[in-house]
Amino acid sequence: MSKESFVFQAEVSKLLDIVARSLYSHKEVFLRELVSNASDACDRLRYEGLTTPALMEGDAALRIAIGVDDKKGTLTVTDNGIGMNRDDLVGMLGTIARSGTQAFVERLSGDAAKDVAMIGQFGVGFYSSFMVADSVEVVTRKAGEAQAWRWVSDGHGSFTVEETQRAGRGTTVTLHLNADSREFLDKGRLEGVIKRYSDHIAIPIMFDGDKDAKPLNQASALWTRSRAEIAEDQYHEFYRHVSHDLDSPWMTLHNRVEGVLSYTSLLFIPKSRPFDLFDPERKPRLKLYVRRVFITDDCGELLPGYLRFVRGIVDSEDLSLNVSREMLQRDPKLAKIRSGLVKRILGDLAKKAENAPDDYRVFWDAFGAVLKEGLYEDFENRESLLGLARFRTTAGDEPVGLAMYVERMKPGQEAIYYITGEDAAAVANSPQLEGFKARGVEVLLLTDPVDEFWVPAVAAFKGKDFRSVTRADTDLGAIAKDGDKASDKPEEPAPAGIDALIAAFKLALGKAVSDVRLSKRLTESPVCLVAKEGGMDMRLERLLKRHQQLGDDLVSAPVLEVNPDHALIRRLAGMAEGKGGGDAVAEAAHLLLDQARILEGEAVPDPVAFGRRLTAWLEKGLI
Ligand code: ADP
Ligand code: MG
Description:
Elements: E1 4-7, H1 10-20, H2 29-51, E2 64-69, E3 74-79, H3 86-92, H4 101-107, H5 112-122, E4 133-141, E5 148-153, E6 158-164, E7 170-177, H6 187-198, E8 205-207, H7 232-243, E9 251-257, E10 263-269, E11 287-290, E12 293-296, E13 311-316, H8 325-329, H9 332-355, H10 357-371, H11 373-377, H12 382-388, E14 390-393, E15 396-401, H13 402-407, E16 416-420, H14 424-428, H15 434-438, E17 443-446, H16 451-458, E18 460-461, E19 464-468, H17 498-509, E20 515-518, E21 527-530, H18 538-546, E22 559-562, H19 567-577, H20 582-599, H21 607-622
Helix pairs in contact: 2-6, 9-10, 9-12, 17-19, 17-20
This protein binds adenosine-5'-diphosphate and magnesium ion.
């Protein structure tokens, strides 16, 4: 077959443009990427070799070799791993095959500095070769196949693939170094780079031709070494290897469990959100090894979805190597490992929350919204998760834990009060909060979509119910108003005519409300809406409605609460009691209901009528 030409996937071209401008601060990282790929290729071969031993025959000692040719100005990285066939080459080295690519490319802004930060998070892998090379050649032969293939590109939009010869399985990547990168012909320099970035690689890395020489790296899986032997830098490099994140991790957890079930885990929590955190798949991305043999990085069973931001590896001593990945994933031992890992992660987070609250806040800001998913889906660990949760509250900017909230509850306060909504600033100004503020009662401001789901599921913390401030049965009567905030004047009696006003409002509003009542929660606004007793929280109801999870027939009309201390309500009460004010009171009822809806962020159902009434009232006021 003759030479075929291909253009890179558009995303790859974009990436290559950025790479070509060499925006990495350390372009030497290309070597880490190539060595990392070589090591992955060896891992994959070893796994395939379990079921097809013939693949390893004749060349069982896996290794990675680095070669330089001063005259040609080339650097080569060779492995005897799984290799690639033609389709692999076109698929893997012409596209960005990793999941979430779409999301990644959508977020590229065209602003170089921002994009580099993004790429740092995504990792450009193989394509980083073009930072140091004018052209790159890959000669590769897949294990178990006879035909070898040659892939060549200068990184400008296209590449070619053609048949070639290669003595055995594996891959050789040859970089024709550009004029600025000839430092990578120097073995001393290369050795330094390997030691720095690739020491944790479990496959021996050697210079070409030095087959019997000592490897440049330690060549033992990092997690098998004892914690005391591992420098922080080595942990960080390993983290980069498994996560593609160029930043250092926020937390490192390295543990060995021995007993009925023995396994080692080396887990990391990133500092910031991976770009695919909210992928609908919610897939955890730990790598599973069995006795040092890599099995899969697609094992959803190793962690629950709410810990999907955790990166790293688990190496089990007990799982069977001689079954398929699918069978392995159904092994009940895996569930035990998972529950051990979850306990460990939550335990370490709790320690951090206790000992380093400021640092913990960095974690919570990034992953709190995800961790809260566990509150409704992981009953077993609910108490620990409740202990880890932090909230914005009406009491100030500091995030507050539930234990702290309960400790600060007012005398007479029975419940943990909360309000939900999309925007913290808007939520904090809701009229339903007025009575709580006047009494100095702290209210949790819940603004993550997930809050609508876990609160009803959890229901209580330390015997205190969670109660929405938008529920009609919220009774603030038992809690005294704050001395300094409450006015000195004694509570005014409800104005004469208030009963008539409420009756007139009910009549005017009909089915639009399920009731009209006097409010204890308002101090400044004339009216607000609350959910009726036993009804769903209003904002949850709205969320479900918006996502078409709730038919119109199930939506319950809210309760309109009126503030008897408000001047407007007092005037209207006077009118309702007298004769002849009926029409004006009815119009006011509609206007006030629409105003309350607007404050809730709801659409006014009949904007034309609203506009007409508002104009009429303005006219009356002015004429
Ligand atoms: P990643 O390693 O994150 O998947 P890369 O850009 O580094 O991304 O590599 C892309 C793909 O190319 C790899 O997933 C792998 O399938 C293939 N590949 C790269 N180098 C090798 C190699 N030395 N041997 C076999 N396959 C390789
Ligand atoms: Mg890679």
